[in-house]
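Subject: design request, 666 residues
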């Protein structure tokens, strides 16, 4: 330890006094320094990146369980040719789904005790491997309470040692003989899953389209270490939970568009019966063909009568949405979205939509709730309906729980180990400079813009003073969903009306911001990295989601010479026809960065019964010639700072500037 002078620590004495409460003696401070120095020289923990989950909970949970193929790679490394491929597949399936797989094993195995003996020994080997990069303390904290002591003994004792062979053998045989093997196997498999991934990054869009966003959120809320970079669909739900009725209408419309009501009804208890009653009455003679949900009717679990009701509800909430959005547009002229008020441009007598000096034939002109004199005014029935929907959203306890989780672990962006994570974009001008965006009379751009939007999102949900500031923030939540200068959207418009009511492809086109072209240029990516405090280099990357990579058309997820990675490849089944795959995930471990391309997940049942894993292809994006250690990470920098502070505390003790605590003469 270099010499630390009294002058060097004089200005830190107050802080060091506080630190001495945690490390009251020279021995305590010394032990912690030794511990932290040792941790710096452990291999970097594995980071797992996923994005655009869109409610596909079965595929999400499977990718989480198999760690994008990391578990399978570990099993192959450990057992090599000592196990047949079928046996390794069986072991992997057991690790992913221990409870379900055990039930199947019991139905077919004639000598269950022998199977238990072999399997427990295999699981111990896998667990020893995945735990080897962590301190014993960290592993101990992850252990299930019921088996903590036993697992510690098995992990840290070698069966190769002749003095320990009988000891370990007796532990395993006793577990079997006292009928605790099932519980122990489940605990070991869950521990392997947990230790394989050190941290999980969700780069936005958990919600909408798929059936189980609430199940994904349940999983995340109980996950050991994760963060979320909010996507536009997440922000839409956060806006709805904050009380923005336009966001509520959009959330319901999206659910009806894909005939996925389980998140709303089963997950959050949102009562859609008033909407169903209103829609059946208002559109009782309307086939609502334009609003038939995007489902394969032949394979849908909804019958014809239910699909007709969903179509009616879909139309009803869509019209209400346009009216609610117009109210925000009128209230906030600074949003510059007057051009998105379109109901008054309909000439129902001639069945045309008039826009930009042209006329377009309307696909549907039956709009009984739209008054020609005041097309944006809610009818009394619509107003009453929205009051009920509003109360249902605001009073949902499960929604509150999940929103608190999103706010606590989420943000607009994250910088982690030289990677910059954000869901969609940082708005740019055509020349690559940061676009200046006006919010309440003040300009924001680059990092400042994302920081400001982050602050507004939190104010919309948490600010209790009922001020205009909260009202503006709540309105801005809707703007973040569809506003041209919103970093979470960044398109000239959201052509919802045009897609429903016209067939004109040019009118339906949404033009992306300059970011989506310029992100292919290395120099632009370097400027963005610097803006967020990341020094461009071999290990610095921008990681995005939001726009599905059309792999089927030859588009690549790696852009700007490897500086930017887009890992939205179609987790959502709705996107898979245009992407050709079922998503990308990213794994960043001590040896490098790997991009994993997935084919569609068949089902949880097939994964359990047939061992049908997701078929994945791994691409090496970056390889580290020297293994990356904790000291090379952001965590390592934090630990070095802690070590320096502890060394100052140690010096203060030895100089007599601070008295050791807990000694006899205290």
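Subject: RE: design request

Done. Sequence follows.
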């Amino acid at each position: 330890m270099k010499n630390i002078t009294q002058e060097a620590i004089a200005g830190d004495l107050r802080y060091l006094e506080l630190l001495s409460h945690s490390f009251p003696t020279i021995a305590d401070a010394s032990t912690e320094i030794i511990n932290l120095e040792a941790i710096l020289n452990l291999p970097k923990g594995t980071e797992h990146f996923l994005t655009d989950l869109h409610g596909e909970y079965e595929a999400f949970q499977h990718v989480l369980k198999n760690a994008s193929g990391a578990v399978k790679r570990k099993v192959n490394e450990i057992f090599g040719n000592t196990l047949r491929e079928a046996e390794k597949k069986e072991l992997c399936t057991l690790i992913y789904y221990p409870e379900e797989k055990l039930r199947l094993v019991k139905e077919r195995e004639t000598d269950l005790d022998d199977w238990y003996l072999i399997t427990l020994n295999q699981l111990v080997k896998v667990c020893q491997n995945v735990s080897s990069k962590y301190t014993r303390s960290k592993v101990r904290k992850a252990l299930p309470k019921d088996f903590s002591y036993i697992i510690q003994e098995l992990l840290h004792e070698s069966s190769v040692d002749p003095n320990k062979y009988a000891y370990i053998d007796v532990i395993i045989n006793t577990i079997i003989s006292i009928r605790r093997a099932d519980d122990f196997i489940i605990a070991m498999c869950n521990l392997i899953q947990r230790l394989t991934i050190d941290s999980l990054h969700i780069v936005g869009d958990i919600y909408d389209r798929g059936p189980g966003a609430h199940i994904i959120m349940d999983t995340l809320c109980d996950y050991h270490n994760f963060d979320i970079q909010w996507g536009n669909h997440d922000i839409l739900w956060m806006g709805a939970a904050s009380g923005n009725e336009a966001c509520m209408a959009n959330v319901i419309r999206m659910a009806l568009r894909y005939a996925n009501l389980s998140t709303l009804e089963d997950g959050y208890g949102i009562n859609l019966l008033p909407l169903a009653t209103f829609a059946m009455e208002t559109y009782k003679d309307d086939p609502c063909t334009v609003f038939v949900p995007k489902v394969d009717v032949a394979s849908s679990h909804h019958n014809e009568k239910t699909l007709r009701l969903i179509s009616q509800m879909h139309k009803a909430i869509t019209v209400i949405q346009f009216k609610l959005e117009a109210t925000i547009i009128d209230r906030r002229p600074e949003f510059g979205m007057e051009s998105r008020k379109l109901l008054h441009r309909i000439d129902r007598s001639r069945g045309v939509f008039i826009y930009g000096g042209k006329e377009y034939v309307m696909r549907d002109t039956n709009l009984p709730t739209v008054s020609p004199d005041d097309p944006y005014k809610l009818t009394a029935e619509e107003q009453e309906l929205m009051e009920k929907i509003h109360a249902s959203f605001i009073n949902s306890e499960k929604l509150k729980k999940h929103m608190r989780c999103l706010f606590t672990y989420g943000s607009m962006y994250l910088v982690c180990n030289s990677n910059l994570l954000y869901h969609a974009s940082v708005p740019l001008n055509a020349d690559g400079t940061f676009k200046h965006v006006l919010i309440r009379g003040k300009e924001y751009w680059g990092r400042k813009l994302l920081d400001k939007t982050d602050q507004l999102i939190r104010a919309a949900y948490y600010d209790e003073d009922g001020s205009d500031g909260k009202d503006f923030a709540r309105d801005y939540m809707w703007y973040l969903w569809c506003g041209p200068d919103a970093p979470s959207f960044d398109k000239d418009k959201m052509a919802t009306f045009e897609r429903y009511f016209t067939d004109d492809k040019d009118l339906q086109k949404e033009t992306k911001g300059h970011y989506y072209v310029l992100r292919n240029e290395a120099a632009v990516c370097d400027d963005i990295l610097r803006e967020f405090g990341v020094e461009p280099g071999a290990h610095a990357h921008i990681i995005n989601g939001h726009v599905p990579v059309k792999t089927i058309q030859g588009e690549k997820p790696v852009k700007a010479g490897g500086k930017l990675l887009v890992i939205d490849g179609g987790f959502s089944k709705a996107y898979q026809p245009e992407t050709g795959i079922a998503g990308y995930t990213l794994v960043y471990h001590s040896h490098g960065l790997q991009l994993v391309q997935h084919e569609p997940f068949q089902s949880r049942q097939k994964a359990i019964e047939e061992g049908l894993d997701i078929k994945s292809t791994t691409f090496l994006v970056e390889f580290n010639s020297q293994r990356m250690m904790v000291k090379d990470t952001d965590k390592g920098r934090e630990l070095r700072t802690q070590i320096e502070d502890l060394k100052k505390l140690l010096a203060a003790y030895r100089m007599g500037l601070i008295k050791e605590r807990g000694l006899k003469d205290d």
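The CA atoms of residues 143 and 149 lie 9 Å apart.
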